[in-house]
Fold:
Amino acid sequence: MAAPHSAFAFQPFSAQQKRLLYWWREGSPYRDCDILLADGSIRSGKTIACICSFLIWSMERFSGQNFILAGKTVGALKKNVIGPMQQILAAWGIPYHYVRSGEQRIEIGTNTYYLYDAHNESSQDKLQGLTAAGALADEAALFPRNFIEQMLGRCSVDGAKVFLNCNPESPGHFIKTELIDRAREKHICHLHFTMADNLTLSQATREKYERMFTGVFYKRFIEGLWAATDGLVYPQFADETERFLLDEAPEDIQYAVIGVDFGGSKSAHSFTLTGFTRGFRQVVVLDEYYHNNTKQGRLSPAQVEAAFVDFVRRAKARWRVYEARCDSAEQTLIEGLTVAAVRARLGVEIKNALKRPINDRIAFYNSLIAQDRFRMLRHCTAHIRAFAQAVYDPDEPVRDIRLDDGTTDIDSLDSTEYTTERIQDDILYLGRETACRA
Ligand SMILES: Nc1ncnc2c1ncn2[C@@H]1O[C@H](COP(=O)(O)OP(=O)(O)OP(=O)(O)O)[C@@H](O)[C@H]1O
Ligand SMILES: [Mg+2]
Structure:
């Protein structure tokens, strides 16, 4: 039974999208390749063309086979691939069955397309034992390498092909060094996309995306280049710090979140209070606590708890604060804070930080800064210094490694990032609309 779903509103495909649609067909110069890799700018039409190509190829070539549909998380996969895929099938009038319980899958005719997340190093375990005739990996540069290797290994049916798409990362990323740079020798069809390859983007939309990034992220996400980081993590903040500072908190802070990074003997305890204005228009560092264990002497757990209780009281006196996101590596300290919070009747939930990849968090702050939506209260001096001084490791030019050798304050960056990482996609995509209108 075909689930009722709105039909995808197709518009003309660009020449590059057409290459992606038919790379595997007789007559294509790439027909003998086993892997398709589409990389390049955001919003350039890679995913849509990849889904169409993968569906037509798999339905035309196989029956009774298994296929892999992989995304960074199941949520991302559903949003980017499964949703559009249902609309595309509806537009083509092809019946399908979406099984949401147990092993999530889509059945089209006698073919089965299983959903997988490539979240962490153990995600690949779920692929073990599977024999597949093909795979579609969306945003593959965000996957752990072992997942991609396992996925390639699982596609062992005669004539199997793997379709990968991604935005560029650092030039040292294995997709660049192992697949793109060795495309010819490894029989990989490499198609590079820029926004010009998506004919549905208006000039205004394109410009809106262009304003969302600066520096290395502009090169990667807008220009579609595998560009290396260079020096400062937040060059714009470092160059024009004053522009990002406020004497007073904005009037319309809706609520605030606390981030906690615990310090070891060579680092610092850092607490951040981050507020959000209406519609996530601005993200504002409202308050901080910073204690450097090396310079100021090491605190006992009881002293950390007392500092935390103080910090939360100060925050709650002025703003709505419901949760604190804490460095999950320190479970005993988190338990201590939880007990202290209950005892002091603070009314905040103590939760683990998600710890998303550091580069996701950096891209998020870079984007907020590019859009002029990030602010700090002037008294948050540790945070101001931390953002202005953050640098990439000069010894690792082709890998995105934030320098963490004790010379800069990583702790305040971490605690700030913990306050936003859970909602950073909402902040970017919801807040942008309001920010643009303002
Ligand atoms: N031929 C087409 N007809 C209709 N809509 C299209 C077409 N090609 C692209 N689009 C639309 O353009 C937008 C961007 O396309 P898509 O999601 O495929 O880009 P992408 O390169 O995968 O972007 P990202 O790197 O951000 O994931 C989507 O909303 C998509 O539906
Ligand atoms: Mg995409």
